[in-house]
Amino acid sequence: MGRSPHPPQTKVSAAFASGNRANMTPAPTAVTWWRGFNDPLLNSLGAQAATNNPDVRSAKSSLAAAVGAR
């Protein structure tokens, strides 16, 4: 049997299809995934990273500075 000449029909929720992003915020576990390891050192490093790098631009800058310091 060959390919179907018709694309598959995919059902998408109305909120997603309309571009409404209100329901697309990350779950709290998505931004604290490392806590699942129950490692105090990893939790400490994650907290430091969140405190010292409140956005992606500053995180990139800090990483570049750290790599350049070697």
Descriptive notes:
By secondary structure, the chain is mostly helical. It has 4 helices and no strands. The termini are far apart. Helix content is about 50%, strand content about 0%. The model has no long low-confidence stretch (mean pLDDT about 75).
Concise description?
The protein has 70 residues and is mainly alpha-helical. It has helices spanning 14-17, 28-31, 40-52, 56-68. The protein is built from four helices and no strands.
Low-confidence stretches: none
Helix fraction, binned, reads: 40-55%
- Sheet-strand content, in percent, reads under 5%
Backbone shape: elongated
Order of helices and strands: HHHH
Cα-to-Cα separation, first versus last residue: 61 Å
Provide mean pLDDT, rounded.
Answer: 75
Strand-helix topology:
Blueprint: H1 14-17, H2 28-31, H3 40-52, H4 56-68
Key traits:
single chain, 70 residues, mainly alpha, 49% helix
